[in-house]
Amino acid sequence: MLIQNKMIQRVREKCIQDDSVSAGMMYGSFTKGEGDQYSDVEFYIFIENDKMDDFSPRQWISEVYPFNLIFYNEYGTEVVIFTNMIRGEFHFLPESEIGIIKSFKPTGVFPNTDAMYIYDSTKKLKVLLDALGGDGPKRMTDENVNFAYNNFVNAWLMGVNIMKRGELARSLEVLTHVQKFILRLIRVKEQTVERWFNSTKNLEEDISIESYNDYVSITSALKENELTDAYKNALKLAEKLYDVLAVHYKLEVNKDVIGNLYSYYLEK
C-alpha cells in the first residue's frame, strides 16, 4: 500500500474521531485513480462553526503525520511538507462554507465523486459531491480558443519586447505564459482538454509525439540563442495551429497578425 493511502486513511479516522469536524473531502490525483508514490494528498476539512476559532490546523495535521514545514501559500491553502517528503494541501473552513464545493464544477471533470468523500455529519456533503459528477465544462469552444490565441499573441509580444531590451531572465519567465496558451491550443487540436488548467500534467501520454516535439521546440534555457529560437518556433507553431483550428473555430485574430509579428521579430 502506498504511504499516501495510509495517510488518507488517517485523515478519515481523524475526521470521524474529532467532534470539531463536520465534514471532510479529498480532491486531486487519488480521487481520479491517478495517484502514485509521488502524488500529493489534498483535502477540504469543514469545522463546526462555533469551534472554528479554537481549532488548530497545525495540531490537527501533526496528528495525521509528522511534518517538516507548514505554511500558507499565495492562495490561502495550508501547505504541508511531511517528513516522508509527501506534499499535503489542506483547506480548513467553517461548516457554513461547505457550499464552496459548488464552485469546483467549472474547474474540470470529477469522474468519481464517491472517491472524494471522507466523512460527513451534516448530510450535505454527498449531495454537493454528486452535483460535481457528469460532464465537465466545455473547453472546445470559440470563446476558449480565442482566449488562448489572443493571450498567446499578447504574451509573445511582451516576451519579445523584453528580450529585445536585453532582459533575458524576465523574457524566459514570460515564455512560460506563451507555452501555457500554445499548449491549450494543442490540447484543443488533439481533443485532450480535460487538463485545461494544468495542461502540462501527463503531457507525455496525452498528446501525439508530433505535438510533444512541437512543444519541446518552444522551451528554452536562460540562453539568448535558445530564447530567440523558442519565440520564433512559438510563432511558427501558432501559425500551424491557426491553419488547423480556423477550420473548426471562428478566430478573432486575423492570420496577417502572425505575419506582422514575424516581421517585428526580425527587426533589430
TrEMBL record:
UniProt organism field: Virgibacillus kapii
Domain Lincosamide nucleotidyltransferase-like C-terminal: from-to ranges: 141-264
Protein's recorded name: Lincosamide nucleotidyltransferase-like C-terminal domain-containing protein
Domain of life: Bacteria
Gene3D superfamilies: Beta Polymerase, domain 2 (3.30.460.10), Nucleotidyltransferases domain 2 (1.20.120.330)
InterPro entries: LinB-like_C (IPR048495), NT_sf (IPR043519)
SUPFAM superfamilies noted in UniProt: Nucleotidyltransferase
